[in-house]
Amino acid sequence: MEHQIHKLENDDLSFREKHSFSLFIVFSIFISSIIVVASMFMYSGSGAAQLDLSRPGYVSVRSQSVVNVDDFKNFPSLGPMNQNVINEFKSSYEKQSQKVKSANAFGGDSLNLDELGLTVILTE
Amino acid sequence: MSKKFIPLFLLVAVFLSSAFILNASAENSNMSDQQVQTILSNCSSTKNTLNQLHASDALLRVNMGQIYESISTKMMNGFNERVSNNKFNNSDLVNTTNDYNLTLNTFRSDYKVYEEHLSSAIKIDCSKQPVAFYDAVSLARSERDRVHADIAKLNQYLDQYKSAIEKFEKDFQSNNGEGKN
Fold it and tell me: Is residue B163 part of a domain?
């Protein structure tokens, strides 16, 4: 009995020794797969996928993305408060807020079913 | 033990499949053949329009989202802190900024939902599943309306913040006896 257990242990050890490199590769692939799946889950779940213009469907608009928003200066939180500071902030704030307000983003009925030619009259 | 559950599994399976069948038949009964033909004939042009809209809306989300976020992080926060550091009351400004940030988060999540619905609609083969395609586009449309409502709300908070600045300015002038430069 003891002899058999010894033999089994030796067999097991020899299998590990013989295939140690293959086991290492398989284990590495397994760990990598888990990390990739977790990353993809975070990528799609966090909303980053919607902002990723490097995706194939966005080739046509990729060049139009605004990379540099230099006209946005951090308004310093330190410093005195006087009428000039207020005027400066008001003017800068007005400029930036007008930019977004005039764009009227996602306005207009682009998915209007009539315009898309999908108009159907539902029956009772 | 497992044999006891077989009738239960069967019952659940029958219930689920009947629900799917009823749903499918209800959808089909809502559209006449002519209406389905309309969708089929406009299938490819609609797909092209949806693909273009998908791309242009993504660009809009990136560019507008960037500006809306910068207004909060680079301007409102800086000004609120400046007011506070100079021992003035900034509660109106801070409250409006908080509401603005909450709406900005809602906008982000609503856009994500909208994009997912639009992508699903684009993936549906309208030549094979016209009814499902129609339903998916309708759903994406209502989600896009929600995103637009978020934008309108953000713009409203921008106006509200401007009013809060003007109120602060008046208080500042009355406390310091300063006139406008």
Answer: yes
